[in-house]
Amino acid sequence: MKTILLSRPLTNVHVEEIARQFAMPDLTLPFWGSRKKMPMHRIVRLEGEGNYTLFHFADGSQLMVSLTLKKMESRLSPKVFARPHKKNIINLLYLEALHPDHQQLSVSLVNGDRIEVSRRKASRFIKQVRGFQQELLVLDAKPTTPMLVAA
């Protein structure tokens, strides 16, 4: 099995910058009788467990909410989040490598998680990853904040 490394891992500063450029809002989640705002770009992946969704965050913390994965998918940015399998949604900012195999494609994330890609969703998932990488190249090519020159 040949592993395809995608690019260098993104730093927290780079993730914050990309989230700003993609205009990724905070996600309001129901949490113990109240609501809690969570930055969307800090979510590494979402894992469906029946009528619940388990959030895995970049800092290693987890949070379970009583909403289905399908409901959560509609609230996420489609530019950055991909659903490689019916049980998982991943944030492409945290994608580390693709692991193609003649039987099964899987991906590894920067937090060490390894997720299988369903055969039915594999081609669309790979297209989404390539499109996302192209978008990152375009963002990298754009100059960031313009420098001010004193007159």
Automatic annotation (TrEMBL):
Lineage of the species this protein comes from: Bacteria, Pseudomonadati, Bacteroidota, Cytophagia, Cytophagales
Official protein name in the record: LytTR family transcriptional regulator
Domain of life: Bacteria
GO molecular function, one term: phosphorelay response regulator activity
Residues in HTH LytTR-type domain copies: 33-122
Organism per entry: Spirosoma telluris
Pfam families associated with the record: LytTR (PF04397)
